[in-house]
Amino acid sequence: FLVGCAGFPLAWMVHLVSGLLFWHLGYDVLLFWEIGATALWFTLWVLLLTKNIFLLALWLPLFVEIPLRAALATYYMGFTAAFWLYLFVSFMIIPLTNAFSPVMKAFLAVYTVAALLLIASLPAFHPPVAPLDPSWELFFMVSNLFSVAAVVGTVLFLLQTVVLRAEVALAREYDRAEGLLNNILPDPVALRLKDGEQLIADEHPEVSVIFADIVNFTEASAKLKPAELVQTLNLVFTQFDRLAEKAGAEKIKTIGDAYMAVVGMPEAQDRHAEIAVNLAIEMLAAARKASDQAHFPIDLRIGVN
Known about the structure:
The chain is α+β, with helices and mostly antiparallel strands. It is built from ten helices and four strands; from the N terminus they run αααααααβααββαβ.
Protein backbone atom coordinates (compact mmCIF):
# COMPACT_ATOMS: atom_id res chain seq x y z
CA PHE A 1 0.00 0.00 0.00
CA LEU A 2 2.82 2.41 0.91
CA VAL A 3 4.61 1.62 -2.36
CA GLY A 4 1.39 2.22 -4.30
CA CYS A 5 0.68 5.53 -2.59
CA ALA A 6 4.14 6.83 -3.48
CA GLY A 7 4.75 4.97 -6.76
CA PHE A 8 1.47 5.84 -8.46
CA PRO A 9 2.01 9.64 -8.46
CA LEU A 10 5.50 9.07 -9.87
CA ALA A 11 4.00 6.86 -12.60
CA TRP A 12 1.30 9.24 -13.76
CA MET A 13 3.80 12.09 -13.77
CA VAL A 14 6.03 10.02 -16.09
CA HIS A 15 3.03 9.42 -18.38
CA LEU A 16 2.16 13.11 -18.33
CA VAL A 17 5.69 14.15 -19.33
CA SER A 18 5.79 11.46 -22.03
CA GLY A 19 2.47 12.73 -23.38
CA LEU A 20 3.89 16.24 -23.73
CA LEU A 21 6.89 14.86 -25.63
CA PHE A 22 4.65 12.84 -27.96
CA TRP A 23 2.52 15.93 -28.58
CA HIS A 24 5.68 17.84 -29.49
CA LEU A 25 6.78 15.08 -31.87
CA GLY A 26 3.32 14.77 -33.42
CA TYR A 27 2.67 11.15 -32.31
CA ASP A 28 -1.10 11.48 -31.86
CA VAL A 29 -1.78 7.81 -31.11
CA LEU A 30 0.87 7.70 -28.39
CA LEU A 31 -0.35 11.07 -27.09
CA PHE A 32 -3.90 9.76 -26.66
CA TRP A 33 -2.54 6.63 -24.99
CA GLU A 34 -0.54 8.71 -22.50
CA ILE A 35 -3.59 10.86 -21.73
CA GLY A 36 -5.65 7.75 -21.02
CA ALA A 37 -2.82 6.13 -19.03
CA THR A 38 -2.33 9.28 -16.96
CA ALA A 39 -6.04 9.33 -16.14
CA LEU A 40 -5.93 5.59 -15.27
CA TRP A 41 -2.93 5.86 -12.95
CA PHE A 42 -4.30 9.00 -11.29
CA THR A 43 -7.75 7.44 -10.79
CA LEU A 44 -6.31 4.24 -9.33
CA TRP A 45 -4.10 6.29 -7.03
CA VAL A 46 -7.09 8.25 -5.70
CA LEU A 47 -9.15 5.07 -5.29
CA LEU A 48 -6.25 3.34 -3.55
CA LEU A 49 -6.18 6.13 -0.98
CA THR A 50 -9.92 5.94 -0.34
CA LYS A 51 -10.96 2.33 -0.99
CA ASN A 52 -9.59 -1.18 -0.64
CA ILE A 53 -8.87 -1.96 -4.30
CA PHE A 54 -5.23 -2.93 -3.90
CA LEU A 55 -5.31 -5.94 -6.25
CA LEU A 56 -7.09 -4.05 -9.02
CA ALA A 57 -4.69 -1.14 -8.65
CA LEU A 58 -1.80 -3.57 -8.94
CA TRP A 59 -3.12 -5.68 -11.84
CA LEU A 60 -4.27 -3.03 -14.29
CA PRO A 61 -1.21 -0.77 -14.49
CA LEU A 62 1.56 -3.32 -13.96
CA PHE A 63 0.38 -6.20 -16.11
CA VAL A 64 -1.94 -4.52 -18.63
CA GLU A 65 -1.05 -0.87 -19.13
CA ILE A 66 2.76 -1.15 -18.93
CA PRO A 67 3.09 -4.09 -21.42
CA LEU A 68 0.63 -2.51 -23.86
CA ARG A 69 2.38 0.87 -23.66
CA ALA A 70 5.76 -0.77 -24.21
CA ALA A 71 4.43 -2.69 -27.21
CA LEU A 72 2.75 0.36 -28.73
CA ALA A 73 5.79 2.65 -28.28
CA THR A 74 8.15 -0.02 -29.65
CA TYR A 75 5.83 -0.58 -32.62
CA TYR A 76 5.85 3.16 -33.44
CA MET A 77 9.40 4.22 -32.47
CA GLY A 78 11.48 1.04 -32.39
CA PHE A 79 13.40 -1.00 -29.84
CA THR A 80 16.11 1.62 -29.26
CA ALA A 81 13.68 4.04 -27.58
CA ALA A 82 13.71 1.53 -24.68
CA PHE A 83 10.09 1.75 -23.56
CA TRP A 84 10.32 -1.99 -22.92
CA LEU A 85 12.46 -1.19 -19.84
CA TYR A 86 9.29 -0.48 -17.86
CA LEU A 87 8.51 -4.19 -17.89
CA PHE A 88 11.34 -4.60 -15.37
CA VAL A 89 9.20 -2.61 -12.92
CA SER A 90 6.39 -5.12 -13.34
CA PHE A 91 8.81 -8.01 -12.99
CA MET A 92 10.39 -6.55 -9.85
CA ILE A 93 7.07 -6.03 -8.06
CA ILE A 94 6.04 -9.72 -8.42
CA PRO A 95 8.32 -11.20 -5.71
CA LEU A 96 8.01 -8.14 -3.46
CA THR A 97 4.26 -8.29 -2.90
CA ASN A 98 2.34 -10.78 -0.78
CA ALA A 99 -0.87 -10.08 -2.69
CA PHE A 100 -0.32 -13.05 -5.03
CA SER A 101 -0.01 -16.76 -4.37
CA PRO A 102 3.21 -18.58 -5.40
CA VAL A 103 1.44 -20.05 -8.43
CA MET A 104 0.17 -16.64 -9.50
CA LYS A 105 3.64 -15.13 -9.03
CA ALA A 106 5.14 -17.82 -11.26
CA PHE A 107 2.47 -17.19 -13.91
CA LEU A 108 3.01 -13.41 -13.81
CA ALA A 109 6.78 -13.85 -14.05
CA VAL A 110 6.43 -16.04 -17.16
CA TYR A 111 3.84 -13.63 -18.59
CA THR A 112 6.12 -10.61 -18.06
CA VAL A 113 9.17 -12.31 -19.58
CA ALA A 114 7.08 -13.49 -22.56
CA ALA A 115 5.76 -9.95 -23.06
CA LEU A 116 9.31 -8.58 -22.97
CA LEU A 117 10.53 -11.12 -25.56
CA LEU A 118 7.55 -10.45 -27.80
CA ILE A 119 8.03 -6.69 -27.64
CA ALA A 120 11.76 -7.04 -28.27
CA SER A 121 11.03 -9.06 -31.41
CA LEU A 122 8.55 -6.54 -32.87
CA PRO A 123 11.13 -4.57 -34.91
CA ALA A 124 12.33 -7.80 -36.51
CA PHE A 125 8.86 -8.45 -37.96
CA HIS A 126 7.76 -4.88 -38.59
CA PRO A 127 9.89 -1.75 -38.98
CA PRO A 128 8.96 1.20 -36.72
CA VAL A 129 5.93 3.10 -38.00
CA ALA A 130 7.42 6.51 -37.11
CA PRO A 131 11.14 6.00 -36.46
CA LEU A 132 13.00 8.62 -34.44
CA ASP A 133 16.12 10.44 -35.50
CA PRO A 134 19.27 9.37 -33.59
CA SER A 135 19.22 12.29 -31.14
CA TRP A 136 15.61 11.59 -30.06
CA GLU A 137 16.36 7.86 -29.87
CA LEU A 138 19.21 8.58 -27.46
CA PHE A 139 17.05 10.99 -25.48
CA PHE A 140 14.22 8.49 -25.00
CA MET A 141 16.64 5.66 -24.21
CA VAL A 142 18.38 7.70 -21.49
CA SER A 143 15.17 9.22 -20.10
CA ASN A 144 13.40 5.85 -19.96
CA LEU A 145 16.42 4.27 -18.29
CA PHE A 146 16.51 7.10 -15.75
CA SER A 147 12.73 6.88 -15.16
CA VAL A 148 12.81 3.11 -14.58
CA ALA A 149 15.82 3.47 -12.27
CA ALA A 150 13.99 6.18 -10.32
CA VAL A 151 10.86 4.03 -9.95
CA VAL A 152 12.87 0.96 -8.93
CA GLY A 153 14.93 3.03 -6.48
CA THR A 154 11.79 4.55 -4.97
CA VAL A 155 10.16 1.14 -4.53
CA LEU A 156 13.28 -0.35 -2.92
CA PHE A 157 13.67 2.66 -0.63
CA LEU A 158 10.06 2.44 0.50
CA LEU A 159 10.34 -1.30 1.05
CA GLN A 160 13.46 -0.78 3.12
CA THR A 161 11.55 1.82 5.15
CA VAL A 162 8.71 -0.65 5.71
CA VAL A 163 11.17 -3.35 6.80
CA LEU A 164 12.94 -1.00 9.22
CA ARG A 165 9.62 0.09 10.72
CA ALA A 166 8.57 -3.54 11.12
CA GLU A 167 11.88 -4.39 12.78
CA VAL A 168 11.52 -1.47 15.21
CA ALA A 169 7.93 -2.46 16.03
CA LEU A 170 8.99 -6.09 16.47
CA ALA A 171 11.85 -5.10 18.78
CA ARG A 172 9.44 -2.91 20.79
CA GLU A 173 6.96 -5.77 21.17
CA TYR A 174 9.78 -8.16 22.07
CA ASP A 175 11.00 -5.81 24.82
CA ARG A 176 7.44 -5.45 26.05
CA ALA A 177 6.97 -9.23 26.16
CA GLU A 178 10.34 -9.59 27.91
CA GLY A 179 9.30 -7.02 30.50
CA LEU A 180 5.98 -8.74 31.13
CA LEU A 181 7.64 -12.15 31.41
CA ASN A 182 10.29 -10.91 33.82
CA ASN A 183 7.65 -9.10 35.84
CA ILE A 184 5.59 -12.28 36.23
CA LEU A 185 8.42 -14.79 36.75
CA PRO A 186 11.79 -14.71 38.47
CA ASP A 187 14.61 -13.95 36.03
CA PRO A 188 16.21 -17.46 36.22
CA VAL A 189 12.84 -19.12 35.63
CA ALA A 190 12.00 -16.77 32.74
CA LEU A 191 15.37 -17.55 31.18
CA ARG A 192 14.79 -21.30 31.42
CA LEU A 193 11.33 -20.88 29.91
CA LYS A 194 12.77 -18.95 26.96
CA ASP A 195 15.42 -21.65 26.53
CA GLY A 196 12.65 -24.16 25.85
CA GLU A 197 11.93 -25.88 29.17
CA GLN A 198 8.31 -26.96 29.16
CA LEU A 199 7.86 -28.10 32.77
CA ILE A 200 9.52 -26.11 35.53
CA ALA A 201 8.85 -27.49 39.00
CA ASP A 202 11.81 -27.06 41.35
CA GLU A 203 11.95 -28.18 44.97
CA HIS A 204 13.13 -25.66 47.59
CA PRO A 205 13.40 -27.36 51.00
CA GLU A 206 14.17 -24.22 53.02
CA VAL A 207 12.58 -20.84 52.28
CA SER A 208 10.95 -18.01 54.21
CA VAL A 209 7.74 -16.45 52.97
CA ILE A 210 6.64 -12.92 53.81
CA PHE A 211 2.97 -11.90 53.79
CA ALA A 212 2.06 -8.24 54.33
CA ASP A 213 -1.18 -6.33 54.12
CA ILE A 214 -2.29 -2.81 55.04
CA VAL A 215 -4.22 -2.37 58.28
CA ASN A 216 -7.79 -1.02 57.87
CA PHE A 217 -7.31 -0.85 54.12
CA THR A 218 -10.94 -1.69 53.28
CA GLU A 219 -12.36 1.16 55.36
CA ALA A 220 -9.76 3.65 54.12
CA SER A 221 -10.13 2.70 50.45
CA ALA A 222 -13.89 3.26 50.57
CA LYS A 223 -13.21 6.97 51.07
CA LEU A 224 -10.73 7.30 48.22
CA LYS A 225 -11.12 7.90 44.52
CA PRO A 226 -9.79 5.10 42.28
CA ALA A 227 -6.82 7.18 41.17
CA GLU A 228 -5.91 8.00 44.80
CA LEU A 229 -6.19 4.34 45.75
CA VAL A 230 -3.89 3.16 42.95
CA GLN A 231 -1.45 5.98 43.66
CA THR A 232 -1.20 4.95 47.33
CA LEU A 233 -0.68 1.25 46.57
CA ASN A 234 1.90 2.08 43.92
CA LEU A 235 3.77 4.30 46.38
CA VAL A 236 3.93 1.55 49.02
CA PHE A 237 4.58 -1.45 46.78
CA THR A 238 7.30 0.37 44.82
CA GLN A 239 9.16 0.80 48.11
CA PHE A 240 8.60 -2.89 48.91
CA ASP A 241 9.95 -3.97 45.51
CA ARG A 242 13.09 -1.88 46.04
CA LEU A 243 13.68 -3.37 49.49
CA ALA A 244 13.01 -6.92 48.27
CA GLU A 245 15.49 -6.55 45.42
CA LYS A 246 18.10 -5.15 47.81
CA ALA A 247 17.62 -8.08 50.20
CA GLY A 248 17.71 -10.71 47.47
CA ALA A 249 14.06 -11.63 47.98
CA GLU A 250 11.69 -12.55 45.16
CA LYS A 251 8.31 -10.86 44.92
CA ILE A 252 5.67 -13.46 44.16
CA LYS A 253 2.58 -11.30 43.69
CA THR A 254 0.36 -8.51 44.96
CA ILE A 255 -3.36 -8.96 45.51
CA GLY A 256 -5.19 -5.78 46.39
CA ASP A 257 -3.35 -4.45 49.45
CA ALA A 258 -1.53 -7.77 50.07
CA TYR A 259 2.13 -8.25 49.21
CA MET A 260 3.86 -11.64 49.08
CA ALA A 261 7.60 -12.27 48.75
CA VAL A 262 9.90 -15.20 49.40
CA VAL A 263 13.55 -15.53 50.46
CA GLY A 264 15.57 -18.60 49.48
CA MET A 265 14.20 -19.17 45.99
CA PRO A 266 14.89 -19.45 43.17
CA GLU A 267 18.43 -19.14 44.59
CA ALA A 268 18.96 -20.88 47.96
CA GLN A 269 20.10 -18.73 50.92
CA ASP A 270 21.38 -20.07 54.25
CA ARG A 271 20.19 -17.01 56.19
CA HIS A 272 16.75 -16.89 54.58
CA ALA A 273 14.84 -16.53 57.88
CA GLU A 274 17.07 -13.74 59.16
CA ILE A 275 16.89 -11.92 55.85
CA ALA A 276 13.10 -12.26 55.78
CA VAL A 277 12.68 -10.84 59.30
CA ASN A 278 15.00 -7.93 58.55
CA LEU A 279 13.12 -7.28 55.31
CA ALA A 280 9.82 -7.28 57.20
CA ILE A 281 11.16 -4.69 59.68
CA GLU A 282 12.36 -2.50 56.79
CA MET A 283 8.97 -2.82 55.10
CA LEU A 284 7.25 -1.62 58.30
CA ALA A 285 9.50 1.42 58.45
CA ALA A 286 9.03 2.16 54.74
CA ALA A 287 5.23 1.94 55.04
CA ARG A 288 5.11 4.35 57.98
CA LYS A 289 7.40 6.74 56.15
CA ALA A 290 5.17 6.54 53.05
CA SER A 291 2.21 7.68 55.15
CA ASP A 292 3.48 11.26 54.77
CA GLN A 293 2.81 11.07 51.02
CA ALA A 294 -0.20 8.70 51.01
CA HIS A 295 -3.88 9.59 51.27
CA PHE A 296 -4.33 7.81 54.63
CA PRO A 297 -2.06 6.57 57.47
CA ILE A 298 -0.40 3.29 56.50
CA ASP A 299 0.45 0.54 58.91
CA LEU A 300 1.13 -3.13 58.15
CA ARG A 301 0.38 -6.58 59.35
CA ILE A 302 3.29 -8.82 58.40
CA GLY A 303 3.64 -12.57 58.78
CA VAL A 304 6.83 -14.55 58.19
CA ASN A 305 6.72 -18.31 57.73
